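[SOLVED] Predicted holo structure with zinc ion

Edit: marking solved, answer below. Original request kept for reference. I posted the sequence and ligand SMILES and asked for the 3D complex as structure tokens.
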Amino acid sequence: MVVPHPETWLRVLPQGLYCEPGGFFIDPLRAVDRAVITHGHSDHARAGHQAVLATPDTLAIMRARMGAERAGESQQPLAYGEPLDIRGVQVTLRPAGHVLGSAQIVMEWRGSRAVVSGDYKRQDDPTCAPFEPVECDVFVTEATFGFPVFRHPPPAHEIAKLLKSLALFPERTHVIGAYSLGKSQRVIALLREAGWDGPIYIHGALTSLCALYEERGVRLGDLRAATAAKKEVLKGAIVVAPPAACADRWGRRLNDPVIARASGWMRVRQRAKMAGVELPMIISDHADWDDLLRSIAEAQAPEVWVTHGSEEALIHALSLRQIRGRALRLVGYEGEEPGEEAPDERASAPPEPGDHLPPVAEGAA
Amino acid sequence: MTPFAALLERLLFTPGRLAKIALLRDYFAHTPDPDRGYALAAIAGDLSFVAAKPAMIREITMARVDATLFEWSYDYVGDLAETVALIWPDTAPGVAPRLSEVVDALHDTSKAALPARIAGWLDLCDPSERIALLKLITGGLRVGASARLAKIALGEMAGLPADDIEEVWHGLLPPYLPLFDWLEGRAPKPDAAGAPVFRPTMLAHPLEEADAASIDWDAFRAEWKWDGIRVQLVATSGGKRLYTRTAEDISHAFPEILAAMHFLGVLDGELLVLRDGQVAPFADLQQRLNRKSPTAKMLAEFPAAVRLYDILFDGDEDLRALPFDARRQRLEAWYAQENPERMDLSPLIDFAGPEDLAQLRLGARAASIEGLMLKRGDAPYLAGRPKGPWWKWKRDPLSIDAVLMYAQRGHGRRSSIYSDYTFGLWRDDGVLVPVGKAYSGITDQELNFLDSWVRNHTTSRFGPVREVEKALVLEIIFDAAQLSTRHKSGVALRFPRISRIRTDKPAAEADRLSSLMARVVRSGIAKGETLVEAPAAAN
Ligand SMILES: [Zn+2]
Ligand SMILES: [Zn+2]
């Protein structure tokens, strides 16, 4: 029997990537009958599907974020590593190391194997299971940081920068802008690993997700509501909040705050400057350039499909390694901070005269 | 390289002055010699070596990185040093070279050996260290802090005023070991004999009504307060310098003043643009201050001069302990003898009593005058801002009621707030024209009010700027109005700031441009000409 090439059974439709024999979409961009979801970020896990298959953690996150009734008419949990047959397609979920519950979707059909990795990273993350490489015929990857200039330093190094700043400015509130699902909890867990065992104050938008992480076994320590705290109490305190809140009125109540931001985009100084950040922390939940290439190499796939991000440079780099690269150009997935930027004019603000504005990676806002 | 790179990175993103000082202080306190001295030299612009060419940096990078990926990345990042720093492969994890090691090696590495040497360093560095290294060796280092700020930080570290450091500064060379030895109590104060060092300036307090009531008027002398910048002229056997009152060396920007310094001594005065003896508007001086080295055309168009009012050293005789009256006599005698070009004496003003002075001050509406200076005749020249011997008595500001037109978000801590306001006045044909921009003058509460008013009355947006309904009147105060060809309205305001938000006043009743134009002072005041208008005419 001839092994079918994955391009004969995985198709790009307007709804998203479709597994034809299995009859399901992966991270569909609009409501569909059958969806397999890689992880709980809002650009991947959308509301209103009929049947949803995902890890138990991802399903819990979806219910918490959109309400049980919008998180799928029927929800089927599938643990990491347990094979499931869907109309002849064997589906297995493997950890993607992106956020709690995040999974790569491994599909095998008639001897041909494709892996849709969703969003993933290779750095240590105390809040989720580490990425597991899977050999395959086609590896489907993101390329949020698909430029060789994006290399994330060890996160402990970035946390140390923050703690040093706290020692130097013990009166100032240190506010870390971090996306509410995944990044926030990771930053909190990293602070705990670094020995910060005092209270950490959190913005209201983080409360339910932090509680969910705790319920599901991720220890975050003493968390308190930042909004209820007195200005005086927040002197020298660490506050974690969504990035948009830091820049807005909410952040202004704080005591001469040091505005930090945990994001892979902080690697490029001009971007950090434009975001009005005083303490950039290069901490990302996406693979950096080296880890994209490493993961692709470990998948040992002769062919790589790129879903979203800066695919051009990545595909060029693959061609140098005799790997065939193909851009799927799925529009609708976002970069590091899905839906997080305020609908403010900040993103559209023109550069100051004389400033060089780097082109913004597709979907990176 | 590691602490230096961390300092540079943090300074780059830190808007606050006090925070910058704290960062510098922490760096100097915790970094060993001679690295910290070289860092200080880098900040002060005192490091010199043959800079590496960007083309060479590009070349060593291309030997390691695919050309296409490099070009795309450069395009994305927009800065060569940063692109190289980020894209450089992490091959040999190790310890970055010390700053002093780099500086020493740059002095004695041959041109041929330089590329391999730099590549070797880049291999050992992390991206932040690479940026610092590349900016340093290509001569593109922009530190987000001035030399003055570094000296303030050093002063804080040692419990000394920064001016004490200025006094010894110009006799020293990187890495300034005698300076650090002195600051840390291991050696006496370095001797700056013969060097053209800055001498700490004596500053005045603003005269408030309460002070005016208790002042012994007979003890005071009066001078005009000129609207230029305070400078110190220093000429010693070791050289000539022109300093601002914050010890910034601006010699290169004013070569004509330097050329006129044929004497030995230290003098205190006001730097002005002077045409045929008339003081030009401050905007003209600003043109010169904006240029590090002026073109011949600028020298001709904006000729600089110094109006002298004090003498600190005559030759190497220190006159600072003498009372003002004695120094004034010395100044006049010195001036009569030297008669230097491009310099004149700021006259003493005769007055009979406080009423007399108040009248003079009220009438002082010439563009070149900000008000009066009062100096005690028996006071020595003291460093800093001692309260009592010197007062500045600024004239009351002028005011207009203007209409808010545009608002822009501020910088740093105010970056989320609409805190920069463009306001306008009505032209006779009913068109509102912008006349100025104000950033300050209001309380936090008023700022919040304006911020939400702007958000709720936006009519259109241009990037960070919002245009608003022409409905809010602001009372703007300013020190002077001057003609300007660079402003659409034809007039430029000096120090505009918001004094009140006039929610009570309909926009249609705001002031007209013509009433502002009537207050424009069309030229400076000639030497010896009367400086006073009748107060009634001024307002
Ligand atoms: Zn994601
Ligand atoms: Zn994503």
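OP edit: Confidence is low (pLDDT under 50) at residues 522-539 of chain B. Thanks to everyone who chimed in.
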